[in-house]
Design brief:
Elements lengths: L2 H12 L12 H13 L1 H15 L9 H20 L9 H23 L1 H4 L1 H6 L6 H27 L12 H25 L2 H16 L6 H10 L4 H8 L2 H13 L12 H26 L3 H4 L1
Length: 305
C-alpha cells in the first residue's frame, strides 16, 4: 500500500460517523425524517408518476383502465349484489351506497397493499443509493390517491346520472374520511413495509387482512343493520362502539354521508364529526409510532435485501 493511500485511510478513520436516517426516538427524530423526505420531494413525485405509469405499462388503453375498472365494479355490485341477491331492497340507491363505500375502501386497500411491498419492490434503489426510506411507502400512498381520485369522479358522475347529486354540506365528510384512511393505512403501510423486508410473509398476511376488512366495514350492508343485530341478540353496547369507531368504518360512513343522499339519521351513529376528529388524533400518534419503529428497522434494509 502506498504512503498516500495509507495517509488517506488514516484521515478517513479520524472522520466521525454520521447517521443517514432519523436519529433517536423523539419527535425531533421524526421531524428530521420528514424534513429529509421533503428535501427529496422531486424524487417522491417521480416515484408516484412511475408507479402510476407502470401499473398499465404496455396496455393499449393505458390510464383509461383507471376509469374502466370502477365502472365495471359499480355495474357488477349493482346487478349481482343489488338486483340478483336482493341487497338493494333494504337500501335505497343501493348502487351509490355500495360504490361510495368501495371507493374509500379501494384507497385503504391499495395504500396498505402497495406500501407494504414498496421497500422490497424498490430493492435496487435501496441497495445502491441513500434516500429517505420512507419515500417508497409514501409514493405508494400518492399513487393510491390518484387512483382514488379517478374513482371519485366516476362516483360523482354516477350520483348525478342516477338523480341523487351530492349538493348538501354533508359532502364535506369526504375530506376527513380520506384523511383517516391516509393516516391509518399510511401508518400501517410504513410499519409493514419495514417488517416485510425481514419477513416476506407479511405481504401475504396483509392481503388476508384486506379481504376481511371488506366485510368488516359497512360497505355492502348498512350500519343500522349491525345496530339491529346487537339489539336483537342483546349484545354489549361496547361492541357496537368498537365496531363503529374503527377508522375504516368511520371513513366508509363518512363517504356514505357525503354521497348517499337517500340516507336518514338512523343510518349513522351520533356525533360522527367528533368520532372522526378523535380518530384523526389517534392516527397522528400512530403515524409517529410507526415511523419511529421504521427508523429503527431501516438500518439493515440493504443487507436483508
Amino acid at each position: 500500500m502506498t504512503d498516500s493511500a495509507t495517509a488517506r485511510f488514516e484521515r478517513l478513520s479520524r472522520e466521525p460517523l454520521l447517521l443517514t436516517g432519523g436519529s433517536g426516538t423523539s419527535f425531533l427524530g421524526t421531524w428530521s425524517s420528514f424534513r429529509a423526505v421533503f428535501s427529496h420531494r422531486e424524487l417522491l413525485a417521480l416515484l408516484v408518476r412511475r408507479d402510476i405509469k407502470a401499473r398499465y405499462k404496455d396496455s393499449a388503453l393505458g390510464l383509461l383502465w383507471t376509469l374502466i375498472n370502477p365502472i365495471v365494479q359499480l355495474a357488477v355490485y349493482y346487478l349481482v349484489m343489488g338486483q340478483i341477491l336482493g341487497a338493494a331492497r333494504g337500501l335505497p340507491d343501493f348502487a351509490i351506497y355500495v360504490f361510495s363505500g368501495l371507493t374509500i375502501y379501494a384507497l385503504y386497500s391499495e395504500t396498505l397493499s402497495a406500501s407494504t411491498g414498496s421497500i422490497v419492490a424498490n430493492s435496487g434503489l435501496v441497495k445502491k443509493v441513500y434516500v429517505p426510506r420512507e419515500i417508497f411507502p409514501l409514493a405508494s400512498v400518492g399513487s393510491a390517491l390518484f387512483t382514488s381520485g379517478v374513482q371519485m369522479i366516476v362516483l360523482i358522475v354516477a350520483c348525478f346520472a342516477l338523480g341523487a347529486p351530492p349538493l348538501g354540506w354533508e359532502v364535506l365528510y369526504a375530506i376527513p374520511s380520506i384523511l383517516l384512511v391516509v393516516l391509518f393505512a399510511g401508518s400501517f403501510g410504513i410499519l409493514l413495509s419495514a417488517l416485510n423486508v425481514y419477513l416476506r410473509d407479511v405481504q401475504y398476511l396483509t392481503q388476508i387482512v384486506l379481504m376481511l376488512s371488506l366485510w368488516a366495514a359497512p360497505i355492502v350492508y348498512g350500519w343500522n343493520m349491525v345496530n339491529d343485530v346487537m339489539v336483537r341478540y342483546n349484545l354489549p353496547a361496547w361492541l357496537l362502539e368498537v365496531y363503529t369507531n374503527n377508522p375504516l368504518t368511520l371513513a366508509v360512513l363518512g363517504f356514505h354521508r357525503a354521497f348517499w343522499t337517500a340516507a336518514g339519521p338512523a343510518d349513522f351513529p351520533p356525533q360522527m364529526a367528533m368520532r372522526m376528529a378523535i380518530a384523526a388524533l389517534v392516527g397522528v400518534l400512530l403515524l409517529w409510532v410507526c415511523q419511529r419503529v421504521f427508523a429503527r428497522l431501516q438500518g439493515n434494509f440493504a443487507q436483508e435485501l
